[in-house]
Structure formats: C-alpha cells, structure tokens
Write a sequence for this structure.
C-alpha cells in the first residue's frame, strides 16, 4: 500500500471512530437551541474543530438532524414489538411498553428530545419514513390496550385510541422536564404505568340507593 492510500485509509478509520461523537454533539446543540436556532458552527464549537471538518460526516444541517432523529428512535419499535408478542397479560405488557418507551431518556435524552421536538423540520421523505414508524408504534400500544378491553382487564367503555394517545403524550412530555426535576426515569416509568393502569381499570360499582 502506497503512502497516499495508507493516509486515506487511516483518515477514514479516524472518521468512523469519531462519527458517534460528532452526532452526539449535533444532538446536544439541537436539543439546546432547536433546529432553526442551531448552526453547524455551533456543533463545531462544541467539538473544538473547524466547521468545514463537519462535512466529512454530514452534508448539511438537515442531514445532521436526520441522523440525530434516527438515533433517537433506534430500537423503539423493535423493543415494543417484542414486548407486545410476549405471552403475558395486557396489563403487564402495557406496563413494560411504558417502561421501554421511557428508558432511552437514561442514555440518549438529547436524541429523544430532538426527535420529539424537531422532527417536523426533516426533509419530506425522511419525515414520512419516521411518520410510518410513529404510527406503527401507536398501533402496538393500541392493540395491547384493545386486547386488554376484550379480555376484561380494562373497562369496556375505554376508547383504546384516546388511551394510546394519552399514554404516549404523557411519556413523550417527560423528555422536556425530567432533567430539571431530577426525576429517576425508572421511578417515573413505574408511576406512569400505575396512573395508566389505574385509569383504565374497571370502575367500582356504586350500589343504588333504595327509595
């Protein structure tokens, strides 16, 4: 291998090793400043490198946002699908779904926050791909809740669609406040699950008064 080829190979290997650090910096900047408030210079400043060096890793700010959003949703759908397929009660599976949905806030909170708050700025095709993923995740939650209604675990008059949107809305909102509240995500997940399950349970029968 000649000197030029060796240098090129080493540079590419270095870029591969540093790519996760670059995307993490982008996630941090987007989470703090929002997509429109952030610049590639801001990302470069976090890393202490020249702005031009970033273009080895992504071609534009929009591309950086897409990479961050993809990392933010990585594993969500597969984890939820595996939980939904378990031979357990709907109550137990819904509890696990809520815990699984919140768990990425432990190790990649900036990525999740950017996905939830900034994905509308993605290019159209990317937005459509992620939209399909979001709808698929909603269906998993809704199917488990529907099954729980049919089996009598949840009350018969429960609207599965509204319950799904309420649970996901509650979970997603945690990305904006859990750091400020110094809330342990495991504890928050347990509390959220308890709130959801209690709210969907059968209402106690009130005995009629004798006239």
């Amino acid at each position: 291998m000649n000197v030029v080829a060796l240098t090129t190979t080493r540079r590419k290997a270095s870029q591969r090793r540093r790519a996760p650090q670059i995307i993490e910096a982008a996630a941090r900047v987007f989470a703090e400043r929002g997509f429109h408030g952030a610049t590639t210079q801001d990302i470069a400043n976090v890393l202490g490198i020249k702005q031009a060096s970033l273009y080895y890793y992504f071609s534009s700010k929009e591309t950086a946002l897409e990479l961050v959003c993809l990392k933010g949703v990585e594993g969500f759908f597969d984890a939820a699908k595996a939980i939904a397929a378990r031979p357990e009660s709907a109550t137990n599976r819904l509890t696990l779904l809520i815990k699984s949905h919140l768990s990425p806030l432990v190790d990649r909170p900036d990525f999740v926050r950017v996905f939830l708050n900034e994905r509308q700025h993605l290019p159209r095709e990317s937005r459509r791909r992620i939209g399909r993923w979001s709808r698929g995740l909603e269906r998993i939650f809704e199917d488990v809740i529907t099954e729980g209604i049919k089996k009598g675990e949840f009350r018969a008059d429960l609207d599965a669609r509204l319950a799904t949107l309420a649970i996901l809305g509650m979970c997603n909102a945690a990305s904006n406040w859990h750091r400020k509240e110094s809330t342990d995500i495991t504890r928050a997940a347990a509390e959220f699950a308890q709130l959801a399950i209690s709210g969907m349970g059968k209402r106690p029968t009130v005995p009629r008064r004798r006239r």
Summary: The chain has ten helices and no strands. Residues 71-200 form a domain with the Tetracycline Repressor; domain 2 fold (CATH 1.10.357.10). Residues 98 and 189 are 6 Å apart (CA to CA).
